[in-house]
Antistasin-like domain-containing protein
Amino acid sequence: HMLSRGVSTLTTGITDGKSVEYEDVEEVHISDLNLCPLVMCAVYCPSGIEVDAKGCSTCICKDDSIII
């Protein structure tokens, strides 16, 4: 419900040609979806990186990637 409302509003903003409306809508749209902040991890993990409850990267390697 929230997603479809955001998309339809976004389309209206583009149609109106008002960039300010587009920016306002995009800000709301992002918060509705709870997107992760853009995080660049400087680590390479063969088995992948741990994620938090929202599925966002924590930059911590999963346990099975530790090779002794």
